[in-house]
Amino acid sequence: MDKVRIGIIGFGRMGITHYSIINTHPDVEMTAIADTSSMMLNMIKKYLPTVKMFEDYKDLLKSGLVDAVIVCTPSSMHYDVCKMACENGISVFCEKPFTTDPKLAGDLANMFEVKGLVNQVGYVYRFDAVFKKVKELLGQGIIGKVVHTNAQFLSLTISKPQPEKGWRSKRENGGGCTYEMGSHVIDLMEFFYGKPEKVVGSMTNHVYSEAVEDITDVQAVYTGGMTANIHVNWCDYTYRKPMLKLDIHGTKGKIQADLYGYKVFLREENKAAGLPEGWSSVPMNMIPDPCPYYVRGTSFTNQLYAFADAVKEAKTTTGCSFRSATDTQEVIHTIFANEKN
Amino acid sequence: MERIDQIIFGDNQFFGINHRSQEKAEEMLKRFGNIDNIFEVYDNAYDCGVKAVMLNSNERAAAICDRFRENKSRYGELAWYPSIPYPYKYANMVNELGIFPAISEVLFKGNSAGGVLSIIGKGASALFTKDAMKMMEMLIDVEYKMFRDLNVKCLFLQNVIADLVLGYNIKEVFEHYCEYIRKKYHISPGIITLNMPYLISKLKEWGIDEVVICSSINAAGFNMHPSKEEYEKVIAANDPSKYQLMAMNVLASGSITVQQSFDYINSLKLQSVVFGASSKGHIKSTVDAIKLK
Q: Partner of B203 for a Cys bridge, out of A22, A51, B152, B208, CB 3.0 to 4.6 A?
């Protein structure tokens, strides 16, 4: 493949950002955009004359103009768009949450695996410098056997009662703190520990939203008996900026990590890793985090470049696969099912 | 092209921006919630020899500008290097309303000036589709308003927007932006970027020069994309009559010492440094340490 020809389906805020990022990739040619807003289509037609515009994503997928698509439609459309892309031999980067039904998520994972097409979901924290480093430290067994993880994702996304019309008020569009934020944490756990063996319990609660939850708690057990508590709150007025933080307890020490950096506590010095007994701390800006072109954060760029590289070289992506995202979807649906109990 | 000031006092400390610690950011936000505390710092900076400031057009900047205007005699010919827009305002509005309604809101809410009214007459949607450049001019004017009657030397396009647009590789946007700033305001166009080598390669390709470029440059290599080495190559080869280079984030949010920072910064061929600090001691030691080639 000389250049990877990429199209974008759904040209809202995420689509606009993704275009800017991936258009800088030297081996990518942007060839098509589909969106239902004629205003948007007309505006970009004038300034991006080499990109073909479509009002209907189906026409884009049938056009023969793309090797891969970036899907940024509402989540409720993801299944139909991804399925048709697969049928047309097109690789897919799909925004999160992957689908709104674990059965459909699993079907998509199967389809793309059978066809050998690159498939990735935008669980972007897998590309965050701090969390990548945490995964590396866990892999090296720095803190011994991991026994427990406490993960929190807190933000002030919702600060007042929500209009019923907004997309954030509808679960089928990916609204609610579990889809918007919890899905990222559940995916990070999957990234570190694999698929959970069991969701032991969960609770959701409301602060301002009516149709969706504002607070979610989940308890799950992972391979080897590692237990995890996940707590998400998107109405936390003490967090001006979203904060994802982890506390990982192991037999030989502890790792604390958040978006600003990480700290390791070791009960005994680890000479091989160059880590002393007690605390050592590394701020985010001291972790090497190369990024070819920065738009919204290094992780956003690196996840899309990983996707484009995988398509170009016909290899598996280093990002979150449809299979992994299906596991996350299953956890989310267990949480929603528990609400009814 | 007019030579820019070598030392510029930035504003991150006032608005709770700290790349290293949220706690530190919150502490600063609390302290500088009181505008008197902001002006205490400006006074210190001015007394330490700082004669130029950079200020982003965020929701609190208007009050700061007012106070500077009211006290012109105190601050003499302080030079201004504002940046527009405040990206988070747009990000939140776009999230809540969608892109076009958000732009309408910014352009038309509370801006009943004649020019804007005539455009409402034409219909906002026609404007969006037919003339995005005109829309950009209007957005610049709305944002620039708060800096009126100040001694502005250069207007920067803020990096969140600049780098987003740059990725689209549309010459016309940057050409039009630069020309508009020069013709309408008679000042130098500036661009803040976290991708300085890429920006310069594009500006050269497009034949756009006489631009001030502000980017993260620090010994730690923080926020220098694609790499510190690439920055060093571009800086060494740069012709300052075409692109004046301003370093920001020189202390990498405090992860390196002032000495380390400026041993590095002073070794490069840079025209200007923008820095922020909140104590008189830090301001003075930083001003003393800046010795550009």
A: B208
Full domain range(s) for residue A144:
126-287+328-340
Cα of A334 to nearest chain B Cα, Å: 28
Residues A32, A74, single domain; the answer is yes
**Helix A102-115 crosses helix A78-87 at what angle (to 10 degrees)?**
20
Residue contact A48–B29, C-beta within 8 A: no
Contact A190, A98 (CB under 8 A): no
Tell me the ipTM for this assembly.
0.93
Q: How many domains does chain A have?
A: 2
Using a CB-CB distance cutoff of 8 angstroms, which residues of chain A are in contact with residue B222?
A: 285
Q: Which residue of A has its CA nearest to B227?
A: A290
B128 → closest Cβ in A12, A39, A240: A39
| Co-location of A59 and A95 in the same domain | yes
Burial of A20 (0-12, 13-18, 19+ CB in 10 A): buried
Nearest CB to B253: which of A17, A166, A285? A285
**A322 with A105: CB under 8 angstroms?**
yes
Q: Please write the tens of the pLDDT for every residue from B88-107.
A: 777 777 766 676 776 766 66
- Domain B7-86+151-289 architecture: Alpha-Beta Barrel (3.20)
> Can you give the CATH number for the domain in which A166 is found?
3.30.360.10
pTM above 0.90, yes or no: yes
Domain ranges of chain B: 7-86+151-289
Q: What is the pLDDT of residues B194-215, one digit of tens each?
A: 999 999 999 999 999 999 999 9
The whole-angstrom separation of Cα A289 and Cα B70 is: 45
Cβ within 8 Å, pair B225-A295:
no
**B99/A243 CB distance under 8 A:** no
